[in-house]
């Protein structure tokens, strides 16, 4: 009996059966981000990866080529329009952490001469802190109407914890004795020049399941933060509270979005006096709740049908809520846009933008995109098409002026460099930025193809490929995707979705790229999203695998030359499909991933994502999660493709524990895993400008595993 017990225990540890593998976890000690033993393990693994890959013959030329690419090709700047001012956050090889620049706009809206406001790389040196600037939500963080003071979020190490510091844009300096906090999970918005709404985790106040604050304070200049009164509270069971503000002067209004989960939202308004007013909107909304705000309206999108004023509104309808105090309750909600004929508004981050009185949104109809503008006239919204996307390109809205009606539209595609145009009503567009080509696209083409999922659903995919295949049937091919939270992935030009400018090295060698439109994402609207949530997550992986199988069965490539990569939920995707079908892939990159789907609520912000993935404390959901959780399905005796796994110690969104456990588990069963953990980078660790070594190692891994002797095209 003793021998049988020992054998049974060994089977549990080694994962020799599906049942046993689901219950064993020898690696919980790797979950604590800064545990000394875990950090020592991560450092040793990183050193081993560096040693193994940097000594490969192709590493030196790959690293040199990447350096040349980065020196010649900077990513597009991030623009903000603020009345008579424009701000851009720009990065390049000389400024990998970015510079914030200010320009005054002329009468046509175009920025004039740019001047430096803040050099983040210089700040890192001057203050001896590894700062990264989280630049977003300028409408709330820069105070109207002058937009001369901004609340900057500076993260030591790049994680979600950031220091708040008041900054004088005009004089390019931090405000002495201005608003400032230590690093924490912080959000803020100006309510007046001397008062800000703020939430933080600097005290022992209750936190949400994701580790964010549950209380919003009204902080007055010259007072201590700890004495700031609480104006609103969420619940510990909530995902997150988000802060914004609209208007100016006596009409300035704070907006608190309570994300009960990422499908259920509640809003409150905070008047300049600090009075809090409830907002009566349907709670079931598309991610991520508040999509924009004009001077008078909050903009949201329905995730399910809703009856308002006796009228049934369809899913995907865009609504406006009038925040004017004098507006009768019965007239507060109006319909900006109701989809029809296959129309979908599917990009929560860059698909809707609000200006002073108008709402612009990108409408997708069967992958053809157009910009539609809604204008409030009396008691109704009038919409008209503003701009049609060019064939093969993606349209996004990157900025809107809260004090005017200008918007910035981005157009880009796999072989179409990014162009940013300023649109002003009644005037010709003005090009703000045109990206230069990083590679010769004349030998490449983009196709839209389709594969059948196991349930018969057509899964379309974008295929970037050489016009002439040098190795028919063995074309080196990379696949990537996301497929969760209703987030849309669409073709862009060497953007972060595909690994940024590092992908140039792959294209220069004749490699192909595939982006499947899988369920769980938002590409086809909310129904496409919910088709692969919770107990239906496997649908997303089946969709992706159907495309991979089609690439092989149609003779485009073979498993030895087919690789998969992804970040965050995409890292979960790449790991899951490789564990489920190890015979189908020759290399895997899992970047900042979720991996242990039984313990994800206890790492990073995972507690906020149970509506998407399911609650592992529920017996039925636990079994559903176990069926695909990569950590629990890696088994001895299976030949897995090699993995390249990357994460940052400072990633407090997903947490480094997932990536560590993936590498450890693969190593335990004898599979090859290259692990690289950086001390900086947060959830965006795989940034070629900031971490060129990491990306050189990653491209060495992919080229070595999937291309072999495929030569570089020196055109």
- Main structural class: alpha+beta
Based on Cα principal axes, name the global outline. globular
- Can you count the helices? 15
CA-CA gap between termini: 70 Å
Radius of gyration: 25 Å
Low-confidence segments: 1-22, 709-715
The proportion of residues forming helix, as a percent range, comes to 10-25%
Sketch the major β-sheet: 8 strands, mixed
Please give the number of β-strands: 39
Mean pLDDT over the residues: 92
Largest sheet, order of strands side by side? 32-33-35-34-36-37-38-39
Could you tell me the strand content as a percent range? 25-35%
Q: What does this molecule look like?
A:
This protein is of the alpha+beta class and 715 residues long. Helix content is 20%, strand content 32%. The chain contains 15 helices and 39 strands. The strands form nine sheets. Strands 32-33-35-34-36-37-38-39 form an eight-stranded mixed beta sheet, with helices on both faces. Strand 15 (264-270) and strand 16 (276-278) form a beta hairpin. Helix 4 packs across helix 15. The termini are far apart.
Search tags:
715 residues; alpha+beta; 8-stranded mixed sheet; 5-stranded antiparallel sheet; 15 helices; 39 strands; 32% strand; globular; disordered C terminus
Brief account:
The protein has 715 residues and is an alpha+beta fold. The protein is built from 15 helices and 39 strands. The protein is globular, with a radius of gyration of 25 Å.
Write the layout of secondary structure elements.
Elements: H1 2-14, H2 18-21, H3 36-54, H4 59-72, E1 78-82, E2 85-92, E3 95-104, E4 115-119, H5 120-127, E5 131-134, H6 138-141, E6 149-156, E7 163-168, E8 173-174, E9 187-192, E10 195-199, E11 215-220, E12 230-233, E13 240-246, E14 253-261, E15 264-270, E16 276-278, E17 292-293, E18 297-301, E19 306-308, E20 311-313, E21 318-322, E22 333-337, E23 343-344, E24 352-354, E25 358-365, E26 368-377, E27 380-388, E28 394-400, E29 407-413, E30 416-423, E31 430-434, E32 444-452, E33 458-466, E34 477-480, H7 503-508, E35 512-516, H8 526-530, H9 538-553, E36 562-567, H10 569-580, E37 587-591, H11 610-613, H12 619-626, H13 630-633, E38 643-648, H14 657-668, E39 673-678, H15 692-706
Parallel strand pairs: 34-35, 34-36, 36-37, 37-38, 38-39
Antiparallel strand pairs: 1-2, 2-3, 3-4, 5-6, 6-7, 7-8, 9-10, 10-11, 11-12, 13-14, 14-15, 15-16, 17-18, 18-21, 19-20, 21-22, 23-25, 24-25, 25-26, 26-27, 28-29, 29-30, 30-31, 32-33, 33-35
